[in-house]
Amino acid sequence: MKKITIGIVGFGTVGTGVIKILRNNKALIENRLGTPIEIKKIVDLDIKSDRGVRLRKGLLSKNVKDIINDPSIDLIVELIGGVQAARSILLDAIKQGKHIVTANKALLASHGLELLNAAHKGGVDIGFEGSVAGGIPIIGALKEGLTGNRISCILGILNGTANYILSKMTDEGGKFSAILQEAKKQGYAESDPTLDVEGLDTTHKLSILRSIAYGTVNSFEDIYTEGISHIEPIDIEFARELGYRIKLLAIAREIDSQVEARVHPTLIPHDHLLSKVDGTYNAIFIDGNAVGPSMFYGKGAGMMPAASAVVSDIIDISRNIISGISQRIPLFSYQKDHLKKIAIKNIQEVETRYYLRFTVFDRPGVLSKISGILGKHKISIHSVIQKGRRTKGTVSIFLLTHQAREASIRKALHEIDRLSVAQEKTMLIRIEDQI
Amino acid sequence: MKKITIGIVGFGTVGTGVIKILRNNKALIENRLGTPIEIKKIVDLDIKSDRGVRLRKGLLSKNVKDIINDPSIDLIVELIGGVQAARSILLDAIKQGKHIVTANKALLASHGLELLNAAHKGGVDIGFEGSVAGGIPIIGALKEGLTGNRISCILGILNGTANYILSKMTDEGGKFSAILQEAKKQGYAESDPTLDVEGLDTTHKLSILRSIAYGTVNSFEDIYTEGISHIEPIDIEFARELGYRIKLLAIAREIDSQVEARVHPTLIPHDHLLSKVDGTYNAIFIDGNAVGPSMFYGKGAGMMPAASAVVSDIIDISRNIISGISQRIPLFSYQKDHLKKIAIKNIQEVETRYYLRFTVFDRPGVLSKISGILGKHKISIHSVIQKGRRTKGTVSIFLLTHQAREASIRKALHEIDRLSVAQEKTMLIRIEDQI
Do B129 and A141 touch (CB under 8 A)? Predict the structure, then answer.
């Protein structure tokens, strides 16, 4: 094997990082792989901007066909993001027998099965370590290091922007909107941060992890998703007083041979390792039936961490090319005929503990009314605190429930929010404390 | 491929765990691997004790030749520990074309190159994920997920017994010897805990990680090793007051194109994630030049976590067998001709910060004498505290240095310990706070 030849589609931040690693660590990577990796072509619509890396003449092209139709190119790295354009490029490339490395979580979470079938038919490999948690090799850990385990649960902090905002709210106080503005200025949030703060980016990533852990081909749409934009400083503060931190958590869990999958702000005990994951860092906590509790921590985004994952995939597939094999490990860990569509537990049937914050008029008997309604729906109260935080005759009541069914909670809150004393919609945050 | 056939040598704790996983997760593993794994033979000197797993007749044998000479066996799992007997079994097995899975850190740390050469010649694979940090897939992470990175440093808590004792001393107080006794009773320490508490077990593991990170074939003997048995409650307590925790740390670091490798008790900042790794847990903090700071956390020992790693190796090699290949990834990550013996920085040349505790007669001018000697050796003082802990006219002086050279510190302490006011040998603990 003289060399591995690759083409890169998408010369943005991560693409630039990949080029930097392949150059700066060139000797090191060759010493490990045993073969040089050559970048034959880089395709982007913008071939003029300076990305701070010098490129030889002719390396850049605006035409993706220059890569797809080049028979000397073994492997295509797709880093343009978005779903439809990326999908058609990858399907075309697979038809030409190219192996694929992609960090495109939205595409994998929505069209994973289609890509898997195409790759299977074409006998090519698809690497996607960069699609979840940036530089943390969590896909590899699930497909290889933990592959003998039945995965009891996955709890992930998978979005750096959301975690940065929540960490800042926790450490320094302040409202979501103000900190989001600051995060934008500092480059920790995109100009349109919706995907990050409303949870959908986390959902895409959870969908991928769920596929590997449980062998499902479900698209991401059945995952319950709730973002962090409604979290108030008072919730952060009160969670802290109760011994919790609030994190945007991706949760997948096998329970009574059903799988739960949900993304929402979550109270986790302040002494759990996940609570210490601050700023833009990501972490994935996994409990396997042999390995027990484990955690993987690192930078979930950014040029070099994401590129680290992409380069690991390039090297992984190169090792297959050198060995003359492909499809050594199935795309989603399970053999194709053992992948299945599974029924995800509806959020209404989930059972967990809840943090509830009621904003009510400060009238005698209000707590009795609230607890009466909860009791009627068989929701038992773990603890309740009414704090002297009154504005205009309004008071906040903080309540933690014991384990309860989401459907019951929702019914109870529907009733409570219609009480004449109710001033605002009740804040509900789920708790994970059996971890 | 109809099935993968394995033989297990060593029916102890981990061997029993491997059998349990291969049985309890049988369907799951087959769905992932695509092929059943059959245990053909289990060899142990003791074939009578009940290990809580039912075995069919004829599965047990006292004779290792029953495995080595069985041509139907593809892969041998070595779990007897120790160096010489294991070495000769593995070399014999490799000669018979068997692939190897082993968790034998002492063997790999002392005879890694010999095994590598034998495996290379025999065209077989050796898996050793179980040799470091139990269930944490750190070997896989270094060889695959982080393989595009130059590894700046590895900081590992790699011994559960030592970490249990230090955690207990930190959380509940108490002397090393008392807690060690308690740990023995609770099964967290072996009856002869020397390897664990004096650091050598950690050194074996660091030697393996160092080989993979830096492509070295050094045996473990050049790694500076210091255990935890001399740590006093007063050091734990004072470290805490200064904002540190004491951990037995394995440190490998590339610095000015030299490699440092050392094992010793270490002060680390209390807010660093490694400080939160308590009890019998292990963790490895890695800084790579692309991925940045990362951490891998989990159970470092015990039946099922160690077996989780061993089973992941069995599956990994099975995937190679099914694909008809071997040696897809070099044993120590680097291609054979790029492995080298490297010069490890002598401990005398290491530069770091130091915690020093002087036990001296409470006389006027004693601090001036000590700081004078430190100054003479160009060691500058970061902070110093003399606390009112007097017994029989003796006082403790706690001192943190700025960055200093170990040789200078040793010379200074040699002088200080010979002062007439010196009551005890000065306690020296190294600090890692640039992490």
Answer: no
CA–CA gap between residue B1 and residue B321 (Å, rounded): 9
- What is the tens place of the pLDDT at every residue in B212-252? 999 998 999 999 999 999 999 999 999 999 999 999 999 99
Judge whether B110 is closer than 8 Å to chain A, CB to CB.
no
Report the distance separating Cα A171 and Cα A313, nearest Å.
Answer: 36
- Domain hosting residue B18, numbered range: 4-137+303-338
pTM over 0.90: yes
Mean pLDDT of A303-317: 98
Is the domain of A355 the same as that of A332? no
Query: Is A146 touching B (CB cutoff 8 A)?
Result: yes
- Mean model confidence pLDDT for chain B: 96
**Distances A212 to A282, A344, B109, B384 between C-alpha atoms, Å:** 19, 15, 34, 54
Quick check: B121 contacting A, CB < 8 Å?
no
Same domain assignment for residues A160 and A104: no
CATH number at residue B394: 3.30.70.260
**Shared-domain flag, residues A291 and A162:** yes
- Pairing, β A75-78 against β A99-102: parallel
- Nearest Cα of chain A lies from the Cα of B306 at a distance, in angstroms, of 8
Instruction: Please give the pLDDT value at position B392.
Output: 74
| Residue A98 pLDDT exceeds 60 | yes
What lies within 8 Å, CB to CB, of B279 at 6+ separation is B160, B163, B164, B167
Quick check: B150 and A319 CB within 8 A? no
- Asked whether this complex has an ipTM greater than 0.85, the answer is yes
Chain B residues inside the 8 Å CB shell of A330: 32, 34
Average pLDDT over residues B167-184: 96
| DSSP-derived pairing of the beta strands A244-255 and A151-157 | antiparallel
Question: Cβ-count burial of B24 within 10 angstroms (0-12 exposed, 13-18 middle, 19+ buried)?
Answer: middle
Give the model confidence (pLDDT) of A278-287 as tens digits.
999 999 999 9
Q: What does the pLDDT read at residue A434?
A: 79
Is A205 catalytic? The answer is yes
More confident residue, B1 or A315: A315
* Pairing label, strands A244-255, A258-269: antiparallel
The DSSP-derived string for A197-235 is HTSHHHHHHHHHHHHHHH-B---GGGSEE--STT--HHH
We report the CATH number of the domain holding residue B192 as 3.30.360.10
Q: What is the mean pLDDT of residues A32-50?
A: 97
The CA distance from B111 to the nearest CA of chain A, in Å, is: 21
For residue A314, the distance in angstroms to the closest alpha carbon of chain B comes to: 9
Residues of B in contact with A319 (CB under 8 A): 328-329
A290–B135 CB contact, under 8 Å = yes
The residues of B annotated with a catalytic role in the active site are: 205
